[in-house]
Design brief:
This protein has about 270 residues and is an alpha+beta fold. It folds into 2 domains: about 120 residues, MutM-like, N-terminal (N-terminal domain of MutM-like DNA repair proteins); about 130 residues, Orthogonal Bundle (Helicase, Ruva Protein, domain 3). The chain has 9 helices and 10 strands. The radius of gyration is 20 Å and the shape is globular. The mean pLDDT is about 95.
């Protein structure tokens, strides 16, 4: 399932493809959206924002397209009207003179007036998006210690989109490892050093994953392993998907548990 960095990359591709020329054609698969096809034709895409795993495509005529990829949604960018060969269901197509952006499989799509976006049920409750909104480590630290979150386990908290938008399963394990926080801890159980480390890890790991297309390990380690011919899947993460392998820091065996019905990886020595 794509996480925040992957959605931000998809948003970049849509924005690059559609922002230079007006839309010539628009297709919605759902009947309740058909009336918006003509409303969007001729408009320009101003920018594409993200809110965690949702995208907000903003047009110059006062409309915003809300879409959420859910589990299986996928954006595909092609030359204009070059429909991909796929068994996926086409939900949305946006065409200009040179490019087409196709959204497949997603069913959570809405067209809103700009002034309606902030009141949308998902947008209004989701937390800050690290990759689309300015936020500092100090602001995150304050959020960690706020009443709604300070008493909840990190293993659940990091998957809660109302806490921070866009964190999913691999980032959860990686953030806790880098911050040296046991999965069973709550923010109120942590030292100030751990909390500060977590506030930086959220920003740094999400940003690095976005820039490197999913790599969260220290890049000096990555370069060393790549020079040895190690495949990407073996240097991509600190702990995620590395059960039974050695910790890159202390050499201990990486463990796997189930937390909130999803797999979580950690180092029992570094995260004590």
């Amino acid at each position: 399932m794509p996480e925040g960095p992957e959605i931000r990359l998809a948003a970049d591709r849509v924005e690059k493809a559609l922002s230079t020329l007006p839309l010539l054609d628009v297709f919605f698969a759902f009947d309740h959206l058909k009336s918006f096809e003509s409303a969007l034709i001729g408009s320009h895409v101003l920018q594409v924002d993200t809110k965690g795993k949702a995208m907000l495509t903003r047009f110059d005529n006062g409309y915003t397209l809300y879409s959420h990829n859910q589990l299986y949604g996928k954006w595909v960018i092609k030359k204009a009207y070059d429909y991909p060969k796929t068994n996926r269901q086409l939900r949305l197509a946006l065409h200009n003179e040179k490019k087409s952006a196709f959204l497949y499989s997603a069913s959570d799509i809405e067209v809103l007036r700009d002034e309606e976006v902030s009141a949308h049920p998902f947008v209004s409750r989701v937390g800050p998006d690290i990759l689309s909104e300015p936020i500092t480590p100090d602001a995150l630290l304050e959020r960690f210690l706020s009443k709604p979150f300070v008493g909840r386990r990190w293993s659940a908290l990091l998957l809660d989109q109302s806490f921070i938008a866009g964190i999913g399963n691999y980032l959860r394990s990686e953030i806790l490892f880098v911050a040296k926080i046991p999965p069973s801890f709550r923010p109120k159980d942590c030292t100030s050093l751990q909390l500060t480390a977590a506030s930086h890890a959220v920003i740094d790991l999400m940003t690095q994953s976005y820039k490197t297309r999913g790599i969260t390990t220290d890049l000096t380690i990555v370069d060393r392993l790549k020079d040895r011919g190690v495949p990407r899947k073996h240097y991509r993460h600190w702990v995620f998907n590395r059960e039974g392998e050695s910790c890159r820091i202390c050499g201990s065996e990486i463990k796997r548990i189930t937390a909130n019905s999803r797999r979580l990886y950690f180092c029992p020595e570094c995260q004590t």
